[in-house]
From TrEMBL:
NCBIfam families: di_4Fe-4S_YfhL (NF033683). Residues 1-29 form the 4Fe-4S ferredoxin-type domain. Coiled coil: none annotated. PROSITE patterns: 4FE4S_FER_1, 4FE4S_FER_2. The keyword Lipid biosynthesis does not apply. InterPro entries: 4Fe4S_Fe-S-bd, 4Fe4S_Fe_S_CS, PSI_iron-sulfur_center, YfhL-like. GO terms for molecular function: 4 iron, 4 sulfur cluster binding; metal ion binding. It comes from Zooshikella ganghwensis. This is 4Fe-4S dicluster domain-containing protein. Keywords: 4Fe-4S, Electron transport, Iron, Iron-sulfur, Metal-binding, Repeat, Transport. GO terms for cellular component: cytoplasm.
């Protein structure tokens, strides 16, 4: 399951550099997460790094992009070329 950023985002800029897949970018009003690139840090870290650094806790799982750990690992392998 990919993550997403809610409208509680305060644009503090701490999440974007923490994303190992470059899935986070500035949107029109708040930061956004590309669900095609988000692996919840599977393959890189044990926990999603953006959630760890977010001071307002506004990065939940996206119910519109449900994926198993195996699917997230496969996405990681494709993105990084580790397949």
């Amino acid at each position: 399951m990919a993550l997403y950023i809610t409208d509680e985002c305060i644009n503090c800029d701490v999440c974007e550099p923490e994303c190992p897949n470059n899935a986070i970018s500035p949107g029109e009003e708040i930061y956004e997460i590309d669900p095609m690139l988000c692996t919840e840090c599977v393959g890189h870290y044990d926990e999603p790094q953006c959630q760890q650094v977010c001071p307002v806790d506004c990065i939940p799982k996206d119910p519109n992009h449900e994926e198993s750990k195996e699917e997230l690992m496969r996405k990681y392998e494709i993105i990084t070329g580790a397949a």
